[in-house]
Design a protein that fits this description.
Layout lengths: L1 H25 L3 H12 L29 H10 L11 H11 L13 H9 L1 H8 L7 E4 L2 E4 L13 H8 L7 E2 L7 E2 H11 L8 H11 L4 E3 L5 E3 H9 L11 H17 L10 H21 L15 H4 L6 H16 L9 H16 L3 H6 L1 H13 L5 H11 L18
Length: about 425
């Protein structure tokens, strides 16, 4: 009898416990329910951020300065960086850079040049990708449970940097509902890529430059999101990561970090209102600005007499006093990238104007005097040059080129007939 009563009491306790658990679960919010399921029911936690815009924000340049680059000089540089790529084994990294510079709207009269639409198709359609690389290559677009990830690694058939694909398409003006065709699905869009990137992001990653840019241009003025491990992240954390460590350890001699910080500062400055908290906290706004001031002070004293900056510009005056053996392409990287972020920076963050002009003239001469083969070999670096110089004329490469083509129509080169010399008698 006692044993029976014990079992009854145990059963009652279990029923009460289960009922209480059910009531508690019913009161959970949608997000809390997903977290509970992911922890205890072994279902995936896949948070989704509500993106309120169809196209990303654009950070416009401040200046239109023909002293930095004239129309003729800009046209000569842009002629050099047109995306004339071979169809076989088309490098995603090259196309990403070209699309970022030229935008999804780019059109060229020369049929051998890839249009913005063609570049976008290659990067968002698995069929176009395997037409270039074949079925043996791993897909660039990787299907996930509820999204699309981009394969990135140091291989010529992949995107080279984490979230670089997303950042480049974002700066190129892609729409949120742009279709993305994966190996087996045709119902995905750019939004699915963005949501996957937000979920997968980890603040301890080595490279956060492109994540910061892409997330900022889509989310602003919202300042936070959650990842699959339930962690809430914000732009203060990204800004802090971008400022951490010596600049020399960042991609492209640390210049991408500077551009991303300048972009976040502008986004915060131009998109904060009374209805939203700022993207960056007041303390972080001040920290970012102070950091950019320190960058300004370093490039002011690290520029060489001919106008270029070297890859060790972050050493400040020592970069000139004790110069290193620096490859020319590294000088192109540093000089072009600095001109790019300075074009979207307020004058207070500039070195003296004559230094900007000197840097521009060096990079223009270097670009226009380089062979097409040399430009193609270092295309990713030179694409930043074209974009930077266009920004200094308060325009973008595709917009300028459209107008330039109207005044200077494309003419296909006509091969001269060969003169046949008869054999000597």
């Amino acid at each position: 009898m006692k044993r029976r009563d014990a079992w009854i009491r145990f059963a009652i306790v279990q029923v009460v416990f289960i009922a209480a658990l059910g009531v508690a679960f019913a009161r959970l919010s949608s997000t809390e329910s997903k977290i509970f399921n992911s922890q205890f029911v072994r279902t995936s936690y896949l948070p989704t951020v509500n993106i309120t815009r169809k196209t990303p924000l654009v950070i416009e340049p401040f200046y239109n300065d023909p002293q930095v680059v004239t129309d003729e000089e800009l046209a000569q540089v842009l002629m050099k960086i047109r995306p004339k790529f071979a169809a076989r084994h088309l490098k995603p990294n090259y196309v990403e850079h070209a699309l970022r510079a030229w935008s999804v709207h780019a059109e060229f009269q020369d049929p051998e040049i890839m249009s913005g639409a063609a570049m976008l198709d290659f990067l968002t359609d698995h069929g176009k990708y395997i037409a270039s690389w074949g079925n043996e290559t791993k897909p660039l677009l990787q299907e996930k449970e509820k999204g699309v990830a981009i394969r990135w690694e140091s291989k010529i058939d992949a995107s080279v940097h984490h979230d670089h694909w997303l950042a480049c398409l974002t700066e190129a003006g892609v729409s949120l509902d742009q279709p993305v065709f994966t190996p087996t699905r045709r119902d995905m869009t750019i939004n699915d890529v963005l949501q996957q990137a937000l979920r997968d992001f980890r603040p301890d990653e080595r490279e956060v430059e492109w994540s910061a840019m892409a997330f900022g241009l889509w989310l602003a003025p919202d300042n936070h999101w959650k990842t699959t491990n339930h962690r809430q992240l914000n732009f203060d954390l990204l800004a802090k990561r971008l400022m951490r460590g010596d600049q020399k350890f960042g991609v492209c001699s640390g210049t991408h970090r500077v551009y991303s910080l300048m972009l976040l500062w502008r986004l915060n400055d131009e998109n904060s209102d009374s209805n939203h908290p700022p993207m960056l906290s007041p303390a972080m706004q001040d920290a970012v600005y102070a950091h950019l001031e320190s960058i300004r002070d370093k490039i002011k004293v690290s520029q060489f007499a001919d106008g270029h900056w070297s890859s060790d510009w972050s050493r400040g005056a020592d970069a000139v006093k004790t110069p290193i053996e620096d490859d020319e392409y590294k000088q192109v990287i540093a000089t072009g990238h600095h001109l790019e972020w300075l074009a979207i920076a307020p004058k207070e963050l500039h070195p003296p104007h004559h230094q900007i002009i000197k840097a521009a003239k060096w990079i223009i001469k270097n670009t226009t005097e380089s062979s097409d083969e040399k430009i193609l070999k270092s295309y990713t670096f030179y694409s930043h040059v074209g974009n930077a110089l266009a920004l200094w004329r308060n325009t973008h490469p595709s917009k300028f080129w459209k107008s330039w083509q109207q005044q200077h129509p494309f003419q296909k080169a006509v091969s001269k007939p060969q003169t046949i010399v008869p054999p000597a008698p």
